[in-house]
Amino acid sequence: xxxxxxxxxxxxxxxxxxxxxxxxxxxxxxxxxxxxxxxxxxxxxxxxxxxxxxxxxxxxxxxxxxxxxxxxxxxxxxxxxxxxxxxxxxxxxxxxxxxxxxxxxxxxxxxxxxxxxxxxxxxxxxxxxxxxxxxxxxxxxxxxxxxxxxxxxxxxxxxxxxxxxxxxxxxxxxxxxxxxxxxxxxxxxxxxxxxxxxxxxxxxxxxxxxxxxxxxxxxxxxxxxxxxxxxxxxxxxxxxxxxxxxxxxxxxxxxxxxxxxxxxxxxxxxxxxxxxxxxxxxxxxxxxxxxxxxxxxxxxxxxxxxxxxxxxxxxxxxxxxxxxxxxxxxxxxxxxxxxxxxxxxxxxxxxxxxxxxxxxxxxxxxxxxxxxxxxxxxxxxxxxxxxxxxxxxxxxxxxxxxxxxxxxxxxxxxxxxxxxxxxxxxxxxxxxxxxxxxxxxxxxxxxxxxxxxxxxxxxxxxxxxx
Length: 466
Description:
Elements: H1 3-14, H2 23-36, H3 38-48, E1 69-73, E2 76-79, E3 84-87, H4 102-114, H5 124-136, E4 142-146, H6 149-164, E5 168-172, E6 208-211, H7 216-226, E7 229-234, H8 239-242, E8 244-245, H9 250-261, E9 264-268, H10 280-285, E10 291-294, E11 306-310, H11 312-315, H12 339-355, H13 357-378, E12 384-388, E13 391-395, H14 407-410, H15 413-429, E14 432-433, E15 439-441, H16 448-462
Parallel strand pairs: 3-14, 5-6, 5-7, 7-9, 9-10
Antiparallel strand pairs: 1-2, 2-3, 4-11, 10-11, 12-13, 13-15
Helix pairs in contact: 2-15, 4-12, 5-12, 7-9, 13-16
């Protein structure tokens, strides 16, 4: 589906009232949720007493309460109530080979047995994994391992400021680049600006600015206004992993503008690497960044996996060991580059390439996306779906597409967000789990049969809509 068609369909959805669930159907969905997930509910009540909000991760919160997992396997998740869900959450994207891939799991267990998971000094997997990553991302001449995408983005802007001697960081509205102070700005829905930056003093964000998605003229204007821009940071597919899709050619236009201005381009590959293309968003869209950021996907879901890579002269600003007075971007992390994570990253990258996982997950996603559109059309719903590789978006209430400059749309965030929660509950009712009731991640184990079963379940949900 072309960008212009996607944009027109998003505009159509947000310009019209939400198509809600029939009240009796929604009531029945919520009642079954409570009955079928008693142990998860008990776990949540217990967790609320000791954990803020009862969960540790945004993706874990489902309506009317979060589920507790018992185990994951293949492309399934089994809850503590022994309900098996077809898993399209995939840990938020990094699982492409399927859960607990036997070869990958065995290699990681071998590392734990032979050398231990972490011991504070380097191991051969540190450079083996870096070499494997560089193989697919030639723009990454030098690589530094970190522990999360948030850390990697935080270090990227620090490097950019040191290398350029400038201060301003520009991002696209709606894009997510972790939760560090200077990037909690204009996230999720374009135009929200400081809406979610509670606890962050205004001066911390004084050198962070955003542009409307895909607006190269707005970026050019900011370059004229700010003049000394250190870096522009982009999500290659667009905000929220492509929920606000990138116009074809936009990323290349940003690259050209940055290079004309002596500004660094940071490509946030946390979702795109290996899932969209083996060479990430930069290979898929055809541009060359100065810095690339990687998160959980590089370790196929194993903990403490992240990296930053880039041009050698730029990465030379990163501290290695204790600094001696030179201008260096300080970074640390006891668990960074631990043998377990680096081994997982090394073998995962090799297995993804050997199995053709990126292409297979993309094929499953395309089948699912096409099927979703057929079901939506069958019930004359304005909803629609598209995919970028193994990432499937299906827009229903389309909260990410709201125009906050339109007074009629600005107040619709709660209502449209609530519908996504209802959709998430309806998916669980059909034994499917998604990302926020609006996104599916596929892996190589989502077979044609599983996709077709999923589409029948989506058909069941559409029958419950007014």
